[in-house]
Amino acid sequence: MAAGAAAKLGTVWGWFWECCSSRMGESQSPFPPVLLLLLLLLVALAPQPAASDITNGNNEHLKREHSLIKPYQGVGSSSMPLWDFQGSTMLTSQYIRLTPDEPSKEGSIWNHQPCFLKDWEMHVHFKVHGLGKKSLHGDGFALWYTRDRLMPGPVFGSKDNFHGLAIFLDTYPNDEATERVFPYISVMVNNGSLTYDHSKDGRWTELAGCTADFRNQNHDTFLAVRYSRGRLTVMTDVEDKNEWKNCIDISGVQLPTGYYFGASAGTGDLSDNHDIISMKLFQLMVEHTPEEDNIDWTKIEPSVSFLKSPKDNVDDPTGNFRSGPLTGWKVFLLLLCALLGIIVCAVVGAVVFQKRQERNKRFY
Name one GO biological process term (predicted). Predict the structure, then answer.
């Protein structure tokens, strides 16, 4: 990101200097090119969609020991290499079905290799579908990176008070007073002390979320989860546009290594088919400082440096929190303030230069 910004700044400065030089030679006011520079800088430094941060899956390192890819091994059996499953989970040649479209089912699938990567990205190809119409379906499924595995429970088929990270893809609004639009994706980080409140759809412990219409689609639906240097990014590709769309972007997230990836789903009185087609984990090649390398990452407690209080979790009509992160804009504003200082210096220099040019012409 820094290299890209520097390159853009260099290009913009070249345009500005060429413009100023030509206009000063014509004894015109320097202010039009300065305004042009400001406009160019706004374009160059405006925050880009977070989709550019998500890998296309080809230029990163696929970790097969943490990936679930067709053709699956062990079809028709109760186990498969590198992955364990339980409950209603059914393995077929085309997908892993966590729950059938039947009431009161729960199932999960878990990688039995702990992940010791500090920086990673998970791409999930999934499908949620069923016969239920309008709001008569549920409940959704969850993606996990947690200390414990194969622990059934009430949170989308897995245990409550977990240690680690959960991404919930919720299809049913239990809180009838909510204004958010479902299906809804949310993120929760837990050190074992927090309880997921189903009656409020996890609102009190949610870090951020977004609406995503992924249910009963006739095309493929994907989710990407990226964790690198304390930044957690969640992207969706559910509109058949073959492009990632920003959903969640949070900084200050601390996750240990040595936890397990998994997926689980649950149904109640209402139901859906919850299918996992693939889970691909990529190692991100990120340089860390010597201090970071000396940390025992297996001992880190799951945490977030800034947690919103429940009173801050106010829904807006779009389903997002008004207090959502604005990290890109904050960086942009800081850079803009610095550049305004440079522009002022450039304007003063241009005015002085023009005055000297006019004074020199008087002697000829």
Answer: positive regulation of phagocytosis
Residue 357 forms part of a structural domain: no
Distance of CA 103 to the CA centre of its chain: 31
CB 64 within 8 A of CB 279: no
Residues contacting 206, CB < 8 A, separation 6+: 186, 187, 188, 313, 321
pTM, full prediction? 0.73
Alpha-carbon span 264 to 213, nearest angstrom: 19
Q: Per the domain annotation, does 278 fall within a domain?
A: yes
* 31 is a domain residue: no
Gap between the Cα atoms of 108 and 88, Å rounded:
8
Whole-number Å distance between alpha carbons of 130 and 324: 32
Provide mean pLDDT across the span 220-248.
97
Angstrom distance (rounded) from CA 141 to CA 189: 16
Q: How far is CA 278 from CA 34, 69, 220, 239, 363, in A?
A: 52, 5, 11, 18, 79
The domain total for the chain is: 1
Residue 43 has pLDDT above 70, yes or no: no
**For 75-114, what is each residue's pLDDT tens digit?**
766 678 899 999 999 999 999 999 999 999 999 999 999 9
Instruction: Answer whether 106's CB lies under 8 Å from 265's CB.
Output: yes
Contacts (Cβ under 8 Å, ≥6 apart) of 64: none
Q: Are strands 140-146 and 163-170 parallel, antiparallel or unpaired?
A: antiparallel
Domain that holds residue 183: 62-300
